[in-house]
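Instructor's aside before we start: the two examples that follow are unrelated to each other. I chose them only because their records fit on one page, so don't look for a connection. First example below.
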Amino acid sequence: MSEGRVRNGPGRTHVGNVPCLLLAMSLWMSAAGATETSRDAETGLESWQADTHGIQVRLTQISPDQARAFYQARGFTPEQAEDYASRCVFMTVVRNIGTLPIEHRLSDWRYVVGDGPPRTLRGKAEWDAVWVRRGVAEAARIAFDWAQFPSTQTFHAGDWNQGMTTYPLPRGSRFNLIVNWHAGDAERRTTLENVRCADETP
């Protein structure tokens, strides 16, 4: 087992276990909200997750073909479904892993590309206005609404929810997602870093 020397006070050392130190650092980073990434071995789709201040936020890529198939099966024409699938689409999950209620508003979230300015996300109301102009049938619009991440919600301890969020970026683009919320009276923020839009074919 690998070992190293760790300083313990002025002029004093003891033998420390390097893997244990690395584990402690990893746990600290997780507690501090560092972004964890993973890839599904079967689909090749990637996920990004941060756990901090009693909240867990997770983004998982939805492939363009998955988005097209999902909405065509719910009454969208191929052209209408492509309006959605042409964007970066993610399954978005939020969990309250703490004890205080979490107050969420999607309008407070921002995504940032490179050194560019923070951008807002399109919520349910904005999408519905688009679908009305595009002539999407009411039943299909209702199904769409149910599949999107909530615009507002209060998460009590143990509560969670999921839904789709979109980002008008080219395939393979990378961005940071800034999630703002309230826990009790405190304003909180965490960032999912270096999130990547799905390619046309995973």
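Example two begins here.
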Amino acid sequence: MAQAQAQTQLKSQRSERDWPFKVKPLHPLLGCEITDITLAEAVSPALFAKVYEAFLAYELILFRDVDLPPATQVAFARNFGEVQVHVLSQYHGYKEHPEIYMLSNLDKDGKPSGKHPDRGTLYWHTDGSWKERTGQATMMYSEIVPETGGETEFADMYSAYDLLPGGMKAKIEGRRAIHNFDFSRTRRHGEDPLTAEQKAKVPPVAHPVVRTHPQTGRKAIFLGDHAESIEGMDYAAGRALIEELNAMITQPAGVYTHRWAPRQCLVWDNRCTLHRATGFDEANEIRVMRRCTIVGDKPF
């Protein structure tokens, strides 16, 4: 009942907008495809404010059939704000564009390597939660996609908070989670951990479990795979609470699964969503994606 009411309220709020483009919802809770304008028009001074309204309203916006060279992707991402240069320099796809985080399973001969480029992406997370200023938005572009698998799933953290039982809300009120990139990287990539230099650049940081979105004012759960422990709690008890919450907030009803096609550009709000990739046949299929993450603010 609560979820149906939330969907009705969202539909009413979104229908009242005066946007010079069409939007097609992708899921009852989050996501829309923007049509009738090009991506170049979307980031123009004349239209970007309206596009950003849609981004805030839907949490995720999609443009199909986009020609987006690396330099243009970085330039477009800068319309949202400062673009992150990821601490994992081994994923920098272009020397001249270190802001691009390359996800590819191609080997040096241009054939499938049999290895997943970043297994950490297979688990629910929000980009950059391991930094003091966390990720505001992420812009992903699809170059080559597998025939089967390789989707990206998105979970709505607004409804995840709204639907929590009162007892759980009381339990986490005022709590802060310690987000630790070294923890998540080692757990998912034990054979390729952070170097000492990389680890020094990203010390653990505490963020509220329940954050208030700085622009919508709505409360959202802020957890995911980078959250290691709960400040002020016994480590084991904190881990158990994080695992319980991560399961509660990623129920299928609140998840949109995006099936990629080549030449798509997706921009999502890291402040109110979690996301994860699905697996694919890394030995026989190819998946090449380019990502830019825009730096946000310190959660409150």
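The longest helix spans residues 2-15.
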